[in-house]
Write a structure and sequence with these properties.
Mean pLDDT: 90
Number of helices: 11
Largest sheet: 6 strands, mixed
Shape: globular
Strand content: 25-35%
Structural class: alpha/beta
Radius of gyration: 19 Å
Number of strands: 13
Length: about 280
């Protein structure tokens, strides 16, 4: 049986794992990063080191924007000539206009696309694509794959430890009072993407050490109660912290498998340096 060719499209908020990076049918459309009037293309003309330097030392707040509908239209026209079908998986529609722009682009190009709202970001998107590639290899049609991946989004779990309150404050997500009190009391907020794909504060923990223990407990609990097999640890310029977290979890859940990766620059703009996240699918 000859497998139908499927083009997989994600936006650059996704974590591009080795599986995705090495796959010829996976395409990434970049988001944009803005510092005042300057615009950069995520993952293309702004390195992580350059971004973090500007976040630490710059005076202007960084912002992000989705690719235009026209950019999507051109890409869909190209892919439609090379593939039998297209599956596009994007950052949560509650967090970004990327999915809406993607849909508009397909309408302009008059191309049929299976769209999936990941209700997540970063490795949440990665996990869906990796699962989809497995289903494709097993011979499922692109409609069957899309249906199964949409069902899979409800099994997503995540715990995000914000490493630095400064970027949330600069981006307008914290008031002056919240920023001052949080910094003074050394509060570490734990946030979560809920079932609707919205970012919500889940908890507040006093001290970084207690916050890391919070993450360890969540992973170990899932391994014991839900038979968790694989965890993504995503970080913002904090690879050593991510490795240490992995080793600490392994002491209590030695059979867990891990993927450690860095969040994209477009996400680091909002999360800030030293952010650590645990993400998995049940």
């Amino acid at each position: 049986m000859t497998l139908k060719k499927i083009a997989w499209l994600v936006d650059s908020s996704a974590y591009i794992s080795n599986t995705l990076k090495d796959h010829s049918d996976v395409y990434v459309i970049p988001l944009n990063i803005h510092f005042g009037l300057e615009q950069f293309v995520d993952g293309v003309d702004l390195t992580p080191d350059q971004l973090y330097d500007r976040l630490r030392n710059g005076t202007e707040a960084a912002k992000t924007s989705q690719p235009s509908a026209g950019e999507f239209a051109m890409l869909y026209e190209k892919l439609s000539k090379e593939y039998d079908s297209i599956i596009a998986i994007h950052v949560s529609n509650s967090l970004s206009g990327t999915l809406s722009s993607s849909i508009s682009g397909a309408e302009i190009a008059q191309i049929q696309v299976e769209f999936i709202d990941s209700f997540s970001l970063s490795a949440g998107i990665t996990g869906l694509v990796e699962k989809g590639l497995q289903l494709q290899e097993a011979g499922q049609s692109y409609q069957e794959i899309a249906t199964e991946l949409r069902n899979m989004t409800s099994k997503f779990r995540n715990y995000i430890l914000i490493g630095n309150l400064t970027q949330l404050y600069k981006g307008g997500r914290l008031s002056s009072a919240q920023f001052y009190l949080g910094s003074l009391l050394k509060i570490k907020p734990i946030i979560q993407i809920n079932a609707e794909g919205e970012l919500k504060e889940l908890d507040k923990v006093r001290s970084h050490k207690k916050a890391i223990q919070y993450l360890i407990n969540k992973a170990v609990e899932a391994a014991e109660k839900d038979d968790l097999k694989h965890v993504y640890i995503m970080h913002a310029n904090a690879e050593q912290q991510a490795t240490d977290l992995k080793l600490a979890i392994l002491q209590q859940a030695p059979n867990l498998q891990f993927t450690i990766g860095e969040i994209s620059t477009s996400l680091a703009v909002h999360a800030g340096e030293d952010t650590i996240a645990l993400l998995w699918y049940l």
